[in-house]
Amino acid sequence: MIDISMLYCDYRAPSAPHRYGRAAGSDAARAHVMRRARSASERRPIVVWNITRTCNLRCIHCYSDSEATSYPDELTTAEAKAVIDDLADFGSPAVLFSGGEPLTRPDLFELARYAGAKKLHTVLSTNGTLIHLDKARQIKQAGFVYVGLSLDSAVPEVHDHFRGQPGAFERTIRGLRHLVAAGQKVGLRLTLSRPTAENLDAVFDLIERERINRACFYHLVPAGRGEKVLDLSPAESRQAVDVILERTRKFHQSGRRVEILTVDNHCDGPYLYLKMLADGDPRAREVYDLLKWNGGGLNSSGVGIGCIDWTGHVHPDQFWTHYSLGNVRQRRFSEIWADTSNPLMAGLKDRKPLLKGRCGRCKFVDLCGGALRVRAELITGDAWAAEPACYLTDEEIGLSPDDVNELKAKGEYLTAPTASPTTIPSDTLSDRPCTE
């Protein structure tokens, strides 16, 4: 995650210590999210738990390819509680109950309360269409610290198309309002694609109108049914991020404290840094240091984020469900996560020397970390290939013509983005930006 609100606007939400190690939240909050870790690479993973594959919708970008049907062999309540015991003992700071649609699982609230009693922060990821007022109160009573509602557009027809069901938009907005009425902390989750990015301003208008306090904008990952969705071109990605930056800043200039984050493309961090540097923002150096502490992809999948699916298989992240690291029915999650005899897990925990192409030569590798390795694997077949969704130009990442020719000769050069690079004043940018 790239915390746009904190980095760009200096808004320091309580969750910032987990991402940047300092500069936000109370000492108690920081101690909770950073327990057993002195650096980003030592953090215990936040676990995305696809507690069920069943879903009442059929979204065209669903990475788990879920439908409104029962799937066999899901973990039992007892097995799920054993997993929670292990996650708590292991020191995972939070578990995100996802799906499918997690609200279709009858024991969800029992499991959430059990996890909360074990001092795990519990988060719910839902499409929101099943949340009537009584359900919203049950969610609040179950102790979820945050609920993320998936919304693909502020234009009802676009959202309903993505969700595969007429009326989905209205039911999601109704669910949002019920959660707010119940006193539940809630936010939006939106996947960026060509149809959704065209209406980003309308999304921010909705955030303001509904007084939503948090929103996460996910770059598309072509997993599951998502491989058929129209992804953004590099120029369109830059334009979408520019809208997100502009509207976030306007929120904060007007006194609206909204937490805005982008997810699943860590080149957003260097892009933000370059923009701040070009604008002469005095906080650019601090932002560079915070991004470097976080490490981007270096400390994400397989390190600070993990996934358990509905049958107990463990994955480096929720998009890598085609690759199992092991199953919690045979070994505890904590054992699977620490086992670097698996070549993929070993590589993810020390990926920098393995990165190829533009990522391997990028001067921002310590900030971005090669972004999302599963996207590279899904598109190129090589987990260590250059990030296909990087929208920074060769000039911006410090590649010389000789570097480009060498990568081309090795067959490691993907077509570079052609957008105009960010203009940096010549007297503010050294060969290695913001070195200490």
Average pLDDT figure: 88
Query: How many strands appear in the DSSP assignment?
Result: 11
| Structural class by SSE content | alpha/beta
What proportion of the residues is helical, as a percent range? 25-40%
**Spatial ordering of strands, largest sheet:** 1-8-7-6-5-4-3-2-9-10-11
**What composes the largest sheet?**
11 strands, mixed
Strand content bin? 5-15%
Low-confidence segments:
23-36, 425-436
Our count of helices gives 20
Shape: globular
Radius of gyration: 21 Å
Instruction: Measure the end-to-end span.
Output: 25 Å
Give an account of the 3D structure.
The protein has 436 residues and is α/β, with parallel strands linked by helices. Helix content is 39%, strand content 11%. The protein has helices at residues 4-9, 16-20, 27-33, 77-90, 108-117, 133-141, 156-163, 168-181, 194-197, 200-209, 234-253, 268-278, 284-294, 333-338, 343-349, 357-361, 365-368, 373-380, 394-397, 401-409, and strands spanning 2-3, 46-50, 94-98, 121-126, 146-150, 186-192, 214-219, 259-263, 305-308, 313-315, 326-327. Strands 1-8-7-6-5-4-3-2-9-10-11 form an eleven-stranded mixed β-sheet. α10 (200-209) runs parallel beside α11. The longest helix is centred in the middle third of the chain and has 20 residues, at 234-253. The two termini are 25 Å apart. Mean pLDDT is 88; it is low at 23-36 and 425-436.
